[in-house]
């Protein structure tokens, strides 16, 4: 502000007392530097000494800052103006002196500017009448510039500051949005330049020419974009007409609302445009394939082309391309290869894994039997299946089962993970990270902290083991790994920590394997029993088949029984088709121009086998809305076209484990119990507008057979 007052002095002398301009030359110019420094120094010292936090001001602001910003005011530098003691109402003269000093600094500058400005306004025309026309115009323009340069900061900067300074005198509790206020401060440098361009005609004309040039370039760029988009659209598979920049977002939102969900929207587009259709989400074309043959051709026969997943900016920022869910390239390949190798050695899909699954199922059934009253136990399906599946995956990953004494550990992990993923919205998944960081910092921190908390909770046992190994209390047997963590840590010990094998990778992999091994299987089980309770005749037929092959239930159902249970296989297949856990499948990058079903798809497009649309395709599955396991009895080959685990190199890593879990859990529960609903059964999908389904809220009764 003192710089502006110096400008007014200079302009005043330039018009009324030219000889005094010598004080702006040579060594005399130091006077004005010292002038500005003096008032700046005075302002800084008064702020530092008069407004330092003391016991009274800290106590006064502590609660407000804690409630509004969730921070303790003592944790960061702060100054405060409290003119009156909030307890006894006495005047705090130290703060009052600071306020008066600030007003003196500000008002001194305004006094200089008002005096010089008013004098120039009243006398300038008389002083410059003998100047040339150009000089007169320049003086008027410079005067107008000075007036605008002081008016602008007065409105956006000094009036807000003055309010803050004066309000304590009146002992008013006023909450000022400091974030907005600070943003208004940053407007001043830009407005200062705009004032000059507005007042000085040469600058104004130059600015107008630049703006017109930019406008022409912008129009040409948009024209070329439209041409390129039209060329792309003409080659891509058919789809609704897209708009520049936003693509088909309006149509997608409209049909989500009118059809009632994601799956019905995708099915609508499939029926209208064919089994291969294109939707533009913003400027990127998304090609959905909704028939089995083309999906197999693209993602299995050309698997290497479509190994890279598309990941939202927020996941790329948080995951740093680590793990298997949100990674690509060499790291993803190494992590997937190692996990498959480890699971195979641990017996996934073999007798050893069957033993683990049955151990967990028997433990849960023992709890059910213990709680039975007259042979009947009522329980929440979600809790039963969550704990069963969660204990299986946890024993594989970190060697720890969940039993009654540590059940709360599982519930805490599940709670943290659910809270983390419920934080994300479609808005977050599409927004650039810099927008989230700068304009929604609290939301960004909440999402990031949720991910970190999930990793820490999921990998808690693994981190304990690392400490035990360092302390010499745990030794890994390289010939008999107890779990995935053993294998990973042994690899780290053998080869040393590197970019693939390190503690952060271990934590992320455990979280990824937890997610893929827990949520989808649990949702399928709950959805399956919900359908079987709605259509009990299929449940009874499957039970009759199981009694036949187990000699009236004298033994457990085993994985070796699969070839002998075509009806149970059909029931599980129909459950998976009907549940179709992913409403929207993961997108893959198309890295080179490729023909798909007779259509050319350019590089840079996103493609996927849209499993939810495929599973309701009436040309493949007759009456797809009906739950009818016997469709697979009538046509045995039809079961091959149910692909809940995806296709190609990015298919579900835990497919073998999930198939084993579903077969053994469905089979043995149907063998041991009859089931009845407790309360009304749900027929409506939960979260139909999200990317994935959530399990039904199902309460059911276990009745001993």
From TrEMBL:
Cofactor dependence: heme
PROSITE patterns in the record: CYTOCHROME_P450 (PS00086)
Tagged with keyword Metal-binding: yes
The keyword Cell membrane is assigned to this record: no
GO molecular function terms noted in the UniProt entry: heme binding; iron ion binding; monooxygenase activity; oxidoreductase activity, acting on paired donors, with incorporation or reduction of molecular oxygen
Residues noted as binding heme in the record, renumbered to the chain: 652
Domain of life: Eukaryota
Entry keywords, A to Z: Heme, Iron, Membrane, Metal-binding, Monooxygenase, Oxidoreductase, Transmembrane, Transmembrane helix
Residues that span the membrane, as ranges: 29-51, 93-118, 146-170, 176-200
Protein family (similarity comment): Belongs to the cytochrome P450 family.
Protein name, entry field: Uncharacterized protein
Gene source species: Caenorhabditis briggsae
């Amino acid at each position: 502000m003192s710089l502006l007052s110096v400008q007014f002095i200079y302009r005043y002398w330039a018009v009324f007392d030219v000889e005094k301009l010598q004080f702006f030359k040579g060594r005399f110019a130091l006077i004005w530097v010292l002038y500005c420094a003096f008032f700046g120094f005075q302002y800084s010292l008064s702020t530092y000494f008069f407004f330092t936090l003391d016991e009274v001001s800290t106590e006064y602001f502590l609660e407000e800052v804690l409630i509004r910003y969730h921070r303790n005011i003592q944790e960061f530098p702060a100054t405060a103006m409290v003119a009156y003691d909030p307890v006894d109402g006495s005047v705090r003269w130290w703060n009052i002196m600071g306020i008066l000093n600030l007003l003196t600094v500000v008002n001194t500058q305004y006094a200089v500017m008002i005096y010089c400005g008013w004098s120039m306004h009243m006398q300038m025309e008389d002083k410059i009448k003998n100047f040339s026309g150009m000089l007169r115009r320049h003086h008027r323009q410079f005067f107008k510039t000075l007036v605008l340069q002081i008016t602008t900061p007065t409105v956006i900067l000094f009036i807000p500051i003055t309010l803050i300074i004066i309000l304590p005198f009146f002992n008013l509790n006023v909450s000022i949005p400091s974030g907005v206020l600070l943003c208004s401060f940053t407007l001043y440098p830009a407005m200062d330049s705009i004032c000059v361009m507005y007042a000085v005609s040469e600058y104004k004309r130059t600015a107008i020419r630049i703006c017109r040039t930019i406008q022409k370039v912008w129009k040409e760029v948009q024209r070329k974009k439209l041409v390129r988009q039209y060329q792309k659209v003409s080659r891509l598979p058919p789809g609704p007409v897209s708009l520049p920049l936003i693509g088909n977002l309006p149509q997608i939102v409209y049909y989500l609302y009118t059809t009632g969900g994601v799956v019905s929207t995708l099915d609508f587009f499939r029926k209208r445009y064919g089994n291969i259709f294109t939707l533009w989400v913003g400027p990127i074309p998304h090609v959905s394939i909704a028939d089995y043959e083309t999906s197999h051709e693209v993602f299995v026969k050309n698997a290497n082309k479509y190994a890279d997943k598309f990941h939202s900016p927020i996941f790329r920022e948080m995951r740093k391309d680590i793990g298997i869910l949100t990674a690509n390239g060499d790291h993803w390949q190494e992590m997937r290869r190692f996990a498959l190798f480890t699971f195979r050695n641990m017996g996934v899909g073999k007798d050893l894994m069957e033993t683990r699954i049955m151990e967990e199922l028997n433990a849960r059934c023992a709890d059910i039997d213990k709680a039975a009253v007259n042979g009947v136990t009522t329980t929440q399906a979600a809790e039963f299946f969550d704990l069963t599946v969660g204990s299986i995956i946890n024993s594989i990953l970190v060697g720890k089962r969940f039993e009654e004494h540590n059940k709360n550990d599982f519930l805490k992990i599940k709670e943290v993970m659910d809270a983390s993923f419920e934080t994300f919205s479609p808005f977050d998944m599409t927004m650039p990270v810099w927008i989230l960081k700068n304009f929604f910092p609290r939301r960004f921190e909440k999402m990031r902290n949720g991910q970190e908390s999930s990793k820490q909770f999921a990998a808690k046992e693994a981190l304990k083991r690392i400490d035990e190994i360092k302390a010499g209390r745990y030794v890994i047997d390289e010939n008999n790994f107890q779990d995935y963590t053993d294998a990973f840590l042994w690899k780290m010990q053998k080869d040393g920590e590197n970019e693939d094998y390190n503690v952060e990778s271990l934590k992320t992999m455990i979280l990824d394997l937890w997610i893929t091994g827990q949520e989808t299987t649990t949702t399928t089980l709950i959805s399956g029993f919900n359908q079987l309770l709605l259509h009990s005749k299929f449940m009874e037929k499957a039970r009759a088949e199981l009694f036949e092959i187990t000699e009236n239930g004298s033994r457990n159902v085993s994985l070796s029984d699969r070839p002998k249970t075509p009806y149970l296989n059909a029931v599980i297949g129909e459950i998976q088709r009907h549940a179709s856990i992913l409403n929207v499948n993961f997108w893959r990058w198309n890295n080179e121009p490729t023909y798909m079903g007779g259509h050319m798809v350019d590089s840079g497009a996103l493609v996927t086998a849209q499993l939810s649309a495929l599973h309701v395709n009436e040309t493949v599955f007759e009456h797809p809305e009906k739950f009818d396991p016997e469709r697979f009895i009538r046509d045995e080959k039809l079961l091959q076209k149910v692909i809940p685990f995806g296709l190609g190199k990015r298919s579900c890593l835990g497919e073998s484990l999930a198939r084993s879990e579903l077969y053994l859990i469905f089979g043995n529960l149907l063998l041991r119990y009859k089931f009845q609903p407790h309360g009304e059964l749900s027929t409506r999908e939960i979260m139909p507008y999200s990317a994935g389904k959530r399990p039904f809220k199902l309460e059911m009764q276990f009745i001993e057979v």
